[in-house]
Structure to design on (1704 residues):
């Protein structure tokens, strides 16, 4: 078996071959083609072609250190499509949220852990895109991240302040030369141990979100210490616990001065959450695609298991939920793209609407991704829980999906606040 | 209390007034406005304005026989917007599926049982629209139905053949004069006892779907007998059990000859199911709107109950699911409208896709509507189950929503078949 | 068809006959016999025999006013088995919670609305049993209720104080002659309009639970006014909204003086909630029994629908959940009975444990009863939602099951408080 | 931190210490004490004491190879309590299913992966217990397994015959000397690579379950080859893929001749499935105990998160479901024990009932265990998915729980068959 993922083969050759990246892409495309514009369908197929070639050329089994692949993916312009990056003379086309959705689908089917890892790079890209102010070092960092030459991470969450990002304990003290000295601890940063560039949030006064600043940090500096923490569900992604000890940040690296950080933290949250929604949708499709192919081939009691209603019907239900969420997400992406096209950026009013919409889709998509992976694995029996396919990666990743980007409770809190505000308008 | 619905008041004046049709419309509009084109938002508001006026003018308490309202609603062009009906010199604008969605939302917030009853009229309109062949009597029936002067129903389901529409027992025997003689029993026809026009399916040979014909019947003819059956969940809608005894159908009333009926039966099914999806979405919104207003006003333990996370969070989750389904349904409606605009009708290939999509959204929306009504009623406590608001109607209707338009199992069957066909393309 | 329930027949004779009370009892007994002691199985069968005979003798169709049946049921000793009632020289054997479970199962299969209505009588019996203090009039009321000669209700819930029973607005003012004058409004009292005896809670100071008293009231007195409210889900049960205007309660009718009422209100709550659990379990079994019989007989596509996994598997899952809850409830009933046998009453420590257990099983059973009724109705298609069987009653009743005895949120609140207390013991 | 499980600490000392084995046991005991007989509560506490001492003495961090611990656990009589093993002169007291439940609870709180691994030993013990026929070598194997000196596994599942155990491909050919030659492949055997003794099922004729035999195999023999397969969710449990190449089994090792194997395979299935139920219940309790302790200590927004209803209420619901299943399982265990006490073994009629009951509780418990672990991990945020506590092990194990002992579909199939049989009795 070419590109064998697990050491001991638990699934027969015929099925493993049918589960190839190419076939899985085909299944996905048949599902989406009627609902995509030509431009986006073409881009999806082009990205898929790249990953099929990339997998073949490098004999990839998806047990490798995926961080090594990122430069080549960056060269292809597939790290993010959120912007055309004309500031870097890139001119990505198509770009925008629908394009980003397509990119994520293609990337996730290829390697889900890679996709999640690259997602953390995007989180570092976003603030640089908005706050580079044409400062050379910021443009340089942005370019290195967008092209995949370097990796990035953002540092918000702290050991004693998980969901409560506003009451930070990490401090930033301004020095006489205009630089800032950072001290404190952060935890659960995706890419932390691999990051060349980090975006760090810190406050001048502990627990006071109004004094928050936003800093770009070169992780080769003194004062940055990182330990890799073990999240067994994503064994190839490096997550970190970082300690800052008199970590000195020169003035040109200060993206947001104390007082600006809080707003900067929240400004990108909608789009970031939509990014997570897209990721979750991609994982659900990947799991369902595996299960559909498997159930159409695996025989038990002399019949392909799809034809047993006890298998085929629950699978159909998962497919329905995934399609429903996909159509909804596409709708939102297209609307955001339209607004950006029309107004240059997302209008303030629409961004307020998006806050609720992103929370709604984030919470739904995280639940669906985990359900799809878990139930599809069940329908595949032993084949679903062994290490021969990407179901292994999907089962693991989706277990932790509700925690990133704000727990379920945070999303519920945002939503219930909105229900209060909407009532007041009546 | 004006327009009091129940005899004994269980909810206080302040809350009952806030639950007015006008306020509920406002809440809905705030939720949808960012995702609608101006044309559709305007039409939604216009339809809402009509129903607010209609309710006030007639002092409606929603305990009335709604069938009496239909002519006036028809005059306003609010029975269906599926077509512009230029064949009747109507030129409804806007029309199409998105417009139909708007019309249904406005109508359902006004009166859910009316909306479901009018839905059965639309089911009779559809085959006439496609198969009138400019025959006078058919055009006449079509016009009477579209304008609400008359009511209609379709007769498919039989006592011993529920989900299995193809193995019918009702027979049609051709007579020497070209007319057909119908004999048999049908059951569960919405509007059956109120229908002036009926569309009946029957076969020349029992159990043989290939011999099916489609007939337009004037219910004043001899041979048509109808009993009202008691479905306690929709007390104001009349459902029927019909017996045909030598019911004679003249040639010009034969919409589809034996052999054509089966195809005719299935051809409209996608769009009909989408109609049901829209109805379900509207009911979910109606229930959620009631609960959001109530939870923002009702105090327990000295605090509005929305602020208890035990109330506010589950409500937020229902709202999220309803928004998700709404965005997805809007996407499908817009895409269907685009195709029809482009090609004049839904292209065959896209109609095949729609078969799966309609089954997916139908099964999801039926479950969501019942969940939303049940859970919102719970969150409203006694106020949710008494007869003072439309929650009464919503609780009842949503209990039977999975059965109309094909049970959950029928939808799952269609979907799992599609998963087989998609696999074969790989 | 003998004993036809609905006017228009929607289900064929063969199936309707198989759904007879006798057959449904048989199915239930096969499920339970391995898990019951002989004494309880025998009592269950004896009660079943009574109801089969009662139904036949009286040609009951379950559309009747069931309140008229209660005297005869009381004569048979089947109104409650919570106690042997030796105080009334009754000596019911078997008695206790397991016996009460059996009694409820037999009664609910016969007529669910009757069973719920009689449950309200029991709520009035409990405080009299504990607080009669051998006062003649209280013993008289107790006897009339236990023997079914009279009906009773308890008045806790108020229009503005639903779940918050402690902050009552109904007042009791002591008069010079030792009597109390009651003023205020209550709402949602089961049996309210039919009650001869009422147990009323009222406070000397509004919103102050510590001043609560408990009163026995003869509803023929001046100052008691009751309106029947319309809860469409239980059309044959009479629920009331009561207004007390200078309702004078003589001293011997004062069960608990101001200050004692709050404790009296809570003391019986555990056992009352267990009573509701039992009721819910009985309804789930009743629904499942209907669906199992129907699915074994109804054919579609030439096969009994049980054999379609899409029908048989979900039905099996509901059956599993119902059996699980039944075994758990039986365990609790047997343990309570053992404690009472051993100590004469439920020991205080065990009663504290029961507070959490009752909340746990109450919330689970209410959800299960509604799910079982809804899903079984779906599996039965049109037959599940028409008025030909008791499914009609079960669908309606289970819609409101989460509200009685404390909403879901109240149960969750009790449970989460217990989790705090348990932690403190660590 | 003593006994630190993960390398990098993500949870603070205070909470980690409160999560100690001793405290978790205490929480469990407070929940169960009111529902256990003294004999079983005492045994539970004794087993807990052993594991607390064992953990301390050996400085266990639960990253170790647990197979090395089994001999000492065996010496303590804690490998299984299903029998008193008087055949081995053991006389375990208490024994039976309730005792086994207690043993499993104590063991699982200590180390879930160990508990699952030891469970596979029990699967090998069961057939030896029933079919040793006093043959020396079988008694020897039985003793070695019960005392933990050796490990065992059973070999049923094959690569191409997952859920379909009856249509085996592994063959057994009788030789002239009365021995059997085994050839074929098995897969997903827990303990396979660690087993000293294996119970193998094979057929004389492929796909013919009626020709099945049952064999005891010493894994040091030629012809036994095993590869460890990688199931990432249980990293410390060794699962195997075994290849038998002319594996020769002498006559005294033939537990069941061809023709007897099928019955032998099914005979123990009920009790085995109840064993899995117990395991699932234990895992649910373990997860909930972690979350309750954590939620009572972790503060966010200056308040312990349990007090946020958004956290405390879902946790309460999981606790309710787990208690419900526990009470139900206890009921079944007690009833089985009673029957065995009365009749010496489980009576045939009761064993038929148990087939349905075991399928019911197996399917419910597997779903609950996964839900409890997943949702508790979510409620614990990052602390729930890192490697600092046993939540890591619980999250992993519960992902695969539905597959062992027959998939959900197999349980549903058994149940729906029973619903058919029960109907026929009416």
């Amino acid at each position: 078996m070419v590109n064998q993922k697990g050491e001991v083969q638990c699934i027969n050759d015929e099925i493993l071959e049918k589960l190839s990246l190419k076939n899985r892409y085909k299944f996905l495309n048949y599902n989406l083609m009627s609902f995509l514009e030509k431009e986006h369908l073409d881009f999806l197929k082009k990205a898929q072609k790249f990953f099929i070639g990339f997998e073949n050329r490098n004999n990839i089994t998806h047990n490798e250190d995926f961080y090594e692949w990122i430069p080549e993916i960056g060269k292809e312009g597939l790290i993010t499509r959120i912007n055309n990056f004309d500031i870097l003379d890139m001119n990505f086309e198509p770009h925008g949220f629908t394009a980003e959705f397509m990119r994520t689908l293609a990337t996730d089917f290829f390697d889900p852990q890679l996709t999640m890892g690259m997602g953390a790079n995007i989180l570092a890209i976003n603030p640089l895109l908005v706050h580079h102010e044409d400062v050379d070092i910021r443009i340089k960092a942005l370019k290195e991240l967008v092209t995949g030459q370097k990796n990035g991470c953002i540092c918000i969450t702290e050991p004693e302040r998980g969901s409560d990002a506003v009451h930070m304990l990490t401090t930033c003290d301004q020095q006489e030369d205009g630089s800032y000295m950072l001290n404190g601890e952060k935890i659960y940063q995706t890419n932390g141990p691999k990051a060349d560039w980090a975006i760090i949030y810190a406050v001048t006064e502990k627990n006071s979100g109004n004094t928050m600043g936003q800093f770009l940090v070169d992780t080769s500096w003194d004062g940055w210490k990182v330990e890799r923490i073990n999240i067994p569900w994503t064994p190839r992604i490096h997550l970190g616990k970082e300690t800052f000890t008199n970590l000195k940040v020169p003035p040109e690296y200060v993206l947001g001065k104390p007082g600006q950080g809080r707003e900067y933290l929240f400004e990108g949250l909608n789009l970031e959450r939509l990014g997570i929604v897209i990721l979750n949708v991609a994982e659900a499709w990947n799991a369902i695609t595996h299960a559909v192919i498997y159930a159409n081939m695996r025989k038990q009691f002399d019949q392909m298991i799809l034809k047993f209603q006890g298998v085929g019907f629950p699978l159909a239900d998962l497919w329905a939920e995934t399609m429903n969420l996909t159509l909804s997400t596409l709708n939102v992406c297209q609307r955001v793209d339209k607004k950006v096209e029309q107004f240059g950026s997302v209008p303030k009013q629409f961004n307020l609407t998006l806050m609720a919409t992103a929370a709604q889709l984030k919470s739904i998509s995280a639940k669906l991704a985990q359900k799809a992976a878990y139930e599809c694995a069940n329908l595949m029996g032993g084949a679903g829980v062994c290490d021969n396919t990407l179901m292994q990666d999907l089962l693991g990743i989706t277990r932790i999906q509700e925690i990133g980007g704000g727990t379920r409770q945070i999303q519920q809190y945002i939503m219930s606040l909105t229900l209060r505000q909407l009532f007041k308008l009546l």
Summary: Chain D has a mean pLDDT of 95. Chain D touches chain A through 52 residues (CB under 8 Å). The beta strands of chain D are 152-155, 171-174, 180-190, 197-203, 212-218, 224-229, 239-249, 254-256, 299-300, 303-304.
